[in-house]
Amino acid sequence: MVDSESIKRILEQVAAGGLSTEDAFARLRTLPFEDIGFARVDHHRRLRRGFPEVIYARGKTPGQVVEIAQRLLDVDGLALATFVEPDVHAALAERFDGVEYDDLARVASIGRMPEPEAGVPPLAVVTAGTSDIPVARQASWIARAGSCPVDEVFDVGVAGLHRLLHVLERLQAAGAIVVVAGMEGALPSVVAGLVAVPVIAVPTSVGYGASFGGVAALLAMLNSCAGGVAVVNIDNGFGGGLIGAMICRRARLPE
Amino acid sequence: MVDSESIKRILEQVAAGGLSTEDAFARLRTLPFEDIGFARVDHHRRLRRGFPEVIYARGKTPGQVVEIAQRLLDVDGLALATFVEPDVHAALAERFDGVEYDDLARVASIGRMPEPEAGVPPLAVVTAGTSDIPVARQASWIARAGSCPVDEVFDVGVAGLHRLLHVLERLQAAGAIVVVAGMEGALPSVVAGLVAVPVIAVPTSVGYGASFGGVAALLAMLNSCAGGVAVVNIDNGFGGGLIGAMICRRARLPE
Amino acid sequence: MVDSESIKRILEQVAAGGLSTEDAFARLRTLPFEDIGFARVDHHRRLRRGFPEVIYARGKTPGQVVEIAQRLLDVDGLALATFVEPDVHAALAERFDGVEYDDLARVASIGRMPEPEAGVPPLAVVTAGTSDIPVARQASWIARAGSCPVDEVFDVGVAGLHRLLHVLERLQAAGAIVVVAGMEGALPSVVAGLVAVPVIAVPTSVGYGASFGGVAALLAMLNSCAGGVAVVNIDNGFGGGLIGAMICRRARLPE
Amino acid sequence: MVDSESIKRILEQVAAGGLSTEDAFARLRTLPFEDIGFARVDHHRRLRRGFPEVIYARGKTPGQVVEIAQRLLDVDGLALATFVEPDVHAALAERFDGVEYDDLARVASIGRMPEPEAGVPPLAVVTAGTSDIPVARQASWIARAGSCPVDEVFDVGVAGLHRLLHVLERLQAAGAIVVVAGMEGALPSVVAGLVAVPVIAVPTSVGYGASFGGVAALLAMLNSCAGGVAVVNIDNGFGGGLIGAMICRRARLPE
Amino acid sequence: MVDSESIKRILEQVAAGGLSTEDAFARLRTLPFEDIGFARVDHHRRLRRGFPEVIYARGKTPGQVVEIAQRLLDVDGLALATFVEPDVHAALAERFDGVEYDDLARVASIGRMPEPEAGVPPLAVVTAGTSDIPVARQASWIARAGSCPVDEVFDVGVAGLHRLLHVLERLQAAGAIVVVAGMEGALPSVVAGLVAVPVIAVPTSVGYGASFGGVAALLAMLNSCAGGVAVVNIDNGFGGGLIGAMICRRARLPE
Amino acid sequence: MVDSESIKRILEQVAAGGLSTEDAFARLRTLPFEDIGFARVDHHRRLRRGFPEVIYARGKTPGQVVEIAQRLLDVDGLALATFVEPDVHAALAERFDGVEYDDLARVASIGRMPEPEAGVPPLAVVTAGTSDIPVARQASWIARAGSCPVDEVFDVGVAGLHRLLHVLERLQAAGAIVVVAGMEGALPSVVAGLVAVPVIAVPTSVGYGASFGGVAALLAMLNSCAGGVAVVNIDNGFGGGLIGAMICRRARLPE
Amino acid sequence: MVDSESIKRILEQVAAGGLSTEDAFARLRTLPFEDIGFARVDHHRRLRRGFPEVIYARGKTPGQVVEIAQRLLDVDGLALATFVEPDVHAALAERFDGVEYDDLARVASIGRMPEPEAGVPPLAVVTAGTSDIPVARQASWIARAGSCPVDEVFDVGVAGLHRLLHVLERLQAAGAIVVVAGMEGALPSVVAGLVAVPVIAVPTSVGYGASFGGVAALLAMLNSCAGGVAVVNIDNGFGGGLIGAMICRRARLPE
Amino acid sequence: MVDSESIKRILEQVAAGGLSTEDAFARLRTLPFEDIGFARVDHHRRLRRGFPEVIYARGKTPGQVVEIAQRLLDVDGLALATFVEPDVHAALAERFDGVEYDDLARVASIGRMPEPEAGVPPLAVVTAGTSDIPVARQASWIARAGSCPVDEVFDVGVAGLHRLLHVLERLQAAGAIVVVAGMEGALPSVVAGLVAVPVIAVPTSVGYGASFGGVAALLAMLNSCAGGVAVVNIDNGFGGGLIGAMICRRARLPE
Hints:
The structure is a homooctamer.
Chain A: H1 4-16, H2 21-30, E1 34-35, E2 40-41, H3 45-49, E3 54-56, H4 62-76, E4 78-82, H5 86-95, E5 100-102, E6 107-111, E7 123-127, H6 133-145, E8 150-153, H7 161-165, H8 168-172, E9 176-181, H9 187-194, E10 199-203, H10 215-222, E11 229-231, H11 237-250
Parallel strand pairs in A: 3-4, 7-8, 7-9, 9-10, 10-11
Antiparallel strand pairs in A: 1-2, 4-6, 5-6
């Protein structure tokens, strides 16, 4: 079993300046991760990143997901998995108590989600349409798993601009904004033109024909004429939520 | 030389119901077009379409452009050419008097441009940025060549939405709106969400990297979540202006 | 509940010149739309656009579609939905009486479709082949929902040109022509070369191999050498019908 | 030097059935081709194919082209080169008398072009527009180099269908038709729908924006809904002319 | 019902020189095709092309396919359909006697296939691998439906070149060669380098990953360094067989 | 001229809670921007965003750039332009004193760059190779123009991982990291796996062949398996620097 | 039946220098392969290549796979098949005893796998993640079928670099390294930067959105900035293992 | 200055088993590389890889290339640069004596190239055409710089297969084969089907139209149906030569 206390001690020394990163790196390298044959479970990623390790369930058998979840639970008390299809959910529910499953977002959590941390500005999670909600929910899940408060604003796309104007104040108050949109992907540009908050754009595969599974939205977002926009992969609500929440959490750090 | 009177008579009979389209078609087929070896100059396209035949100068030698322009001038009294590079302009200016050359739009006209037709609502020609103006100008040229009034509104992109709000009334009054935008191509969606006028979107190659020479804008426009938008080829201001002006002109026909 | 009378009053003032668009916009922004959590139902889009709001059912749960349809019915008396799969149809049929379902076009309507408006020229809806009919039907549905008469002409592709020549007169009489074609997508160019009516080209995913799900047809249409053609998204019969019907309806306005 | 008589003898034996292809192949393999260091000049391709070896000049230095041309001239009495830029032409003209250079098609011939062979039906070479002529000319060159008569018909694109109807009889009389078109590439489908002759479609890079350097035309041609169409590479007039002329020449063989 | 005798008479006059193509065209246009609502069945395509009209069953309901087949049977005595899935086959088998179904090639024929025509050289149909056979079979079907003899040679791909060398004589004797290959699509180049017969290359979607559903093979074939190769759409064995058989049949015409 | 004091007052009221964003927006909309014909210079973007408006010089004439720069200088005392080619630089240098020109990054500044703001953590700007430096420099420019300190670390790509390990401490201390890389674009993933700081990845067009002008790097970055990475457009060092510096600056705000 | 002894004799003569390759080739060409109608089973590929012929089961019917396996078993005593779906496995298991089936890798073997050959350095097979294991297993299978020892190292992706550092020695000791990775595909570059062993990179389709089914990983690997990397097709673990094992085996040959 | 002796000692200890790779890695990390501001020159890559560090000159200023070359010369006595345009060559020639410049391959070497190492089998470098020679030459350069003998075989493409058969013995004798081809890229498959030697395929941008700058050849090579082929980037003769020579050199190691 991993001695997570020793990991913490090493990192505290780094933070305190008593240990160079390089030396810390050398020591961390010698710490055991768990080699369970088909996976090497990385217990100090949480320590490095402030967010739990998340299991990418696609391409793994239900048995593999259960096994990895068990190791994470043992050490962290929380396991989060994405791309969880019903058969994987069933396997998790059979093994663990209190599995929470969001079938829209295909996310499952096992163990206790943390409380939002005081003093951290919320992550605004915005969608252009109703069909984008499943991807947006991934962002909310990972942010909350990292103790970041979340403010969800759904269905405010550019075809009805007055709906967006109603929520400008909430967006202005966020630490970062995750904007989730498919089809032409215009919403991040419009939002970034209106508020002075970093925008993480998440293109979705909502659309058909020349949306090419989200490519149209992805390209639009990469070409945003409004500064302050960066983009993650198509349908990667999880990734957008992670960097968005990292930004929100750091907004508090210097206090 | 072509007897354009006879063409008109045939078409008038069709309009009057005295001749079926099919019979007219059969007769028109027997009318001479001019075969000048490298081109077959089509003198009744103007009659069919209400707009002059336009010379696509790219891929033609200066001599070929001059020759075709001469034939169009002889019959129509007006020749318009697009993609006119300086060497072609020089050849035209040497042969004809009063060539008007728009070096931004790379359009040249020889002969007399018509006056705007009374009672036709204007074609609004809108650009997202200053760099889109050369393409927009193509639209204005062909519309004016077809006697359609034009209202130009430049640099009202989505990154500064308040600039667009200032011109809503002018857009609302148009017979059709040509919206010219590069980069993320979001402007047509936003415009179509605000006004109840048909929008012809013209993507431009303004941008770099993942704009892929205008593909990002093209895809965004094709995927517009706001209804009432149709799209033409990248940088095809001419094509956008042509269908836009056709719509404006027909808005008057039933009077 | 929304007071649609007040919306109408505002817009009438605009039409009458007694209120600027900008002021009207400011007022409209303060009018309630309905926030039902997963969607913000936009009741004044119909007023802005002259066509009912249409529910894009893909990516929405049957329950969400039913809920939105209910709100639209309450205000407009008509709800139209596209991309309606059988499970969504079943949910609609269970809740509402008189659901009309076109399983070819995957369109459902609830409530009363309006009568065609007198004096509006018909929208011609043309297909290259039999396999393109489902997409074409979407165009007919939205046009009729907007009170625009429709003239359907199916299976007149370029491989048998004589079939097209038989219907030239009907096409010439249209206010606009929606041309629906897959494979090489050549029909819009040929139609636009024969008649002087704006052509809205709808590429379809009919084809295989290097048709790339409709991309071949889309590109052909964007590159049409015949002026007067604009294009909508692949399989977007709905979008083509909407702008086509907008053009037809405006052809009557100045009377 | 190569003893072409011995090659002929081998092949005649094959034709007469006195030698299996396999044995002939083994013998041919032992015949000298000329290894000139940077190239291995293939003197029996003409014998195998009925057409002269053609020098693809792009990517070769002027000196290399001259050297290969010399070897071909020595054996065949004719050298043909494509993609000949002015500097290569200059090098050829300096070394050889009577170089014929088509600067539009960028083709050069050295030596004596053969006469058209009696009894061979002509290859029709058709273009949609004037800008497609340089590519079409490549087809004419290689056909004539193979003794195949050529019938050139230029500028009969689908936007003015009546121009095409004028030449139907000439097309019907051809042994094969090479149809050269850029932009939307619709012409081969229309031609193949009207005549019962094999059509070789040559897409060109004429166009801009979403023509993607000829890809739009290429895809349209590959997806032709009219049977009897096969396609060669973009701007490959030479390849289209070669297979077209092969078909024409074989149409006579059984006599 | 269509009077096919009158069609024949018109065409015979053309063949005899007693009627211009143009006049014939005008007359043919007045002949009834059958408008059955969802399709316009083209009875004189067979006459124009020498091959039966083939029903493209994809995207059509079983009922539509049955209906069109009935009309073709009535006039031609033969109906051929491609992309026939089992449900369509079942519908055909229920209505017609003697349906022949090739479940590999997904082709169905109803009525009597003609005998091979004497004096026509065979169409060689060659595959690189076993997995390419279903596509190759489409080519054989249409060729035989057009009375062209067929010589099938399967599994002679470039990874085992000695297998190809065994069949060179058979290929040399063909009127045209259809080469069907997936993956890297190299076989047409190799075949065209060895024999002096026109090669129609058919790329297949056999492969995975960077074969991109046949695009790799398609591009390889379009870029063939060996002249005498033209290409049809991915998996379009039918189209390859049609033009291949047209070439074979014309090889006999001048006799 | 614009009364920037009044803009500030409005925004201060918003910040103080005495004015809703909506009301502020309405007021801002009524403030004059400068319409100079070909551009509408947006003077309150700086106020909204905390960074100066930057002139995108590509596609603008030198005269247009000079004119816009003048307006920005008049109000802000600083003008920054990107994509500045030598002719534009010459025009700027002729009109203004003290133009600073970075010919590697193609950035020009006119007027006084601000001092770095105390208490703001630095933006780390990292490149994989020497050839990526010009793009990285864009990031440094905009960050410094927004008063954000910058720490540049060049040539630490993954092919020599020991070079990266030397600078881990500097990266760990940053407020955000801009990672600039071409070719396979692997560096952002590796960096994000080692440090707990938000990473903005900037793909560059450095590379050739299958780098497709930066697409390979772009895709790699979008697919980063290490969380905490978001991406901007190819070669968009400016955009990466802008959002990176926005994050750094907000890291201080709660103090 | 094939006389494999005679094949061996020919090749031994070549190895011994008593027969030129060319003569051997000529003789081999005359040896019978088995033509079983739908396939030509190539019994001397094993002899030429040192690895058994492998059956690519995709696109073949279960019966075809069984038949080919029988022929290979008869001659080689071992048959290996890839892309074996459960129905094919069932057919194999019904016909043969001792079928070994790896349902993760979809590989089946019939007959006796050889022992690893002494003195051959192992092939290291490395994966970035757990989801890449099925592809990696293909590599292991073919290597072992060719008597090459295998060292599997799974789940050492770049997001947790310390896991890779643990296995450097094992990688350094390999004869070649097959690196299997999806998503951003960065692992081959990092490995090749650390060890002096040829790296064969295998991109996988693990990922979603802008991974485009493995294209992102493929492009990253092709653009590796670290020399000593070559790439095979997406998900082609078999191909990567084959060339990797060929390299390992030759590393021993000169002894 | 770097003490290369100490580097050698460390690595010798590793080779001798007296030092773990991990410990060696830790020590190497502490050794100085040279930080010259715009580049970090990596002097132990040669030691790790057996080949000199090569300067990728594209995107670097002539001054930067000269500076890096100086550092490499000081330590290694040899500097090699690729993508050397004439201006960079001029700068090198001005600074250093004895610069060897291959203007076809755009490679420059400064200092003494090593002799071929005895006992190493040659790297065969094969091209399909004359136009592929510049890329092939890159492969020869890097192989020779790594002391690997080279056997160049040019212009043996598949359109004239007999030319390839002449050199089979030379290919069979190689340690590895680099096959360089553009257009349809079929040569590597054919070579790998004939000989039992690992093939490194190098696609080139030779071709036009649908060769898409080498993509057609790249895809063909990735989809090779003949095992034993791996691929490098388009036009990356250098990369192909490097891994090819690594394989050749290791073929000797166990002695």
